[in-house]
């Protein structure tokens, strides 16, 4: 008789971004105010405390090799994913967009009303990873910096 394995607890713990210039990316994410942890890794990999899943920066070619994916050709534009920076108000969305652009991000889309009753805009980091900055109904960010979803 075979014994059924218990299903593992699903969790998202780290989001790793492949980057071209790790020094520039570290400077950018430091400037945004994320707290870098495990600095002993030097420039091999950088880890940031986000209040939820960890954000990791890793050399693009090494990340591709680790995942057994081709390093080239690199997509120059949208990769089918976006990171999100949830906010409490529309004013905060505009402030975060302006702040990120001031730190070297490219503005992809200015803050605007959404069709679901929210407000959002987009910026791209130095490697063109898109970030949505958003306030949305049913999604709140607590004092613990974690996202809380309505039932």
TrEMBL record:
Q: Which InterPro entries match?
A: Glyas_Bleomycin-R_OHBP_Dase, Glyas_Fos-R_dOase_dom, VOC_core
User: Which segments constitute the VOC domain?
Assistant: 11-136
Superkingdom of the source species: Bacteria
Q: Which Pfam families match?
A: Glyoxalase
This protein is called what? Catechol 2,3-dioxygenase-like lactoylglutathione lyase family enzyme
Provenance organism = Bradyrhizobium japonicum
């Amino acid at each position: 008789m075979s014994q059924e394995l218990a299903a593992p607890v699903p969790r998202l713990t780290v989001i790793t971004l492949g980057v071209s210039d790790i020094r520039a990316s570290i400077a950018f994410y430091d400037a945004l105010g994320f707290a870098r942890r495990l600095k002993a890794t030097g420039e091999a990999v950088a880890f940031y405390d986000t209040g939820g899943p960890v954000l990791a920066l890793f050399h693009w070619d090494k990340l591709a090799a680790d995942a057994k994916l081709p390093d080239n050709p690199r997509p120059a534009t949208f990769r089918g994913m976006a990171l999100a920076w949830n906010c409490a108000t529309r004013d905060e969305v505009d402030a975060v967009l302006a702040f990120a652009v001031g730190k070297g991000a490219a503005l992809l889309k200015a803050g605007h009303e959404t069709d679901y009753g929210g407000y959002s805009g987009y910026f791209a980091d130095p490697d063109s990873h898109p970030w949505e900055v958003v306030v949305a109904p049913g999604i709140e960010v607590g004092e613990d910096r974690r996202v809380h979803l309505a039932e």
